[in-house]
Design brief:
Layout (H helix, E strand, L loop, with lengths): L1 H37 L7 H40 L2 H22 L4 H21 L2 E3 L12 E7 L10 E6 L2 E3 L2 E4 L1 E6 L1
Parallel strand pairs: 2-6
Antiparallel strand pairs: 1-4, 3-6, 4-5
Helix pairs in contact: 3-4
Subcellular location: Cytoplasm
Organism: Albibacterium profundi
Pfam families: GrpE (PF01025)
């Protein structure tokens, strides 16, 4: 019983202490407000202070909005420039191949030797493929592989010549390609059934 009385006395004392600190804070706030009112006219009123803070916030908002708008315009312009020049290096690397084709066509007009023309075209084809491989292009191996809808586009199904070719690619109508390990073009294939 004595413990309960002590606890109640302590609780009452704590509450009394808190009330006194709240009253002191009120008195202090009232004194500050009174001193602001009694000070000369050079001090800002709370309304003026709020108006200044609002004006500053609006100014910051307008500046931030303008900066963001400029950022959007700048990044949009950079994106357009990037897209326009994205293939520049690839096209630059293909120009020698085009020059080789022009020379081969010119040489084919003046020659009767079809084997030398065929050999020249084969060399140009190899050069073109090598240039594209250096840029990340890789041909897809499809024939005799199991049909994969993620890589192949089935053009048609035909009866498989043997049981081990069922569900596998028998022929390739159009070759598929990877560009940096992502499918650039799906292979159009004939599947055995």
């Amino acid at each position: 019983m004595e413990d309960k009385n002590k606890e109640e006395h302590l609780d009452n004392k704590n509450i009394t202490d808190e009330l006194e600190s709240v009253n002191e804070a009120r008195k202090h706030a009232k004194n500050v407000a009174d001193s602001e009112e009694s000070s000369d006219d050079t001090a800002d009123s709370p309304e003026d202070t709020l108006k200044k803070e609002l004006a500053e916030a609006n100014d910051k908002y307008v500046r931030l909005y303008a900066e963001f708008d400029n950022f959007k315009r700048r990044s949009s312009k950079e994106r357009i420039e990037f897209l326009q020049s994205a293939g520049k290096d690839v096209i630059g690397d293909l120009l020698p191949v085009i020059d080789d084709f022009d020379r081969a066509l010119k040489a084919a007009e003046n020659t009767d030797n079809i084997d030398s023309v065929r050999e020249g075209i084969l060399l140009i084809s190899q050069k073109l493929k090598k240039t594209l491989e250096l840029k990340g292009l890789k041909p897809m191996e499809s024939i005799n592989q199991p049909f994969d809808a993620d890589l192949h586009e089935a053009v048609t199904k035909i009866p498989a010549p043997s049981d081990d070719l069922k569900g596998k690619v028998i022929d390739e109508v159009e070759k598929g390609y990877f560009l940096n390990d992502k499918v650039l073009r799906y292979a159009k294939v004939v599947v055995g059934s």
